[in-house]
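On clarity, I found the account of how folds are encoded harder to follow than it need be. What matters is that the chain and its backbone geometry are given together, residue for residue. For the editor and my fellow referees, an illustration may be useful. For illustration, here is how one protein appears when written out as sequence plus structure tokens:

___
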Amino acid sequence: MSLLSVQWQGFGWCMMLCLIVFLLVCLGKLLAAGYRTLFKKLPPEPPSIPEKKAEPVYYLVERKKKRPKRTYAEPKEINFR
């Protein structure tokens, strides 16, 4: 029975070691990113552009045209040969 407890102790130490290494790697990455941005200059602010007044929009609308009434001409005579 004592052999099983030794195996669980080894598993616990292995998990503890993995957790510590994971935390150290994450901390190293955060420190590297912070060091890179430490000496970086911010881009200058672009000059503010004064706002222009909105120009009015005019819509050109064409009125509906009435159809002219149909006027029929006198019938033409057709000659068949």
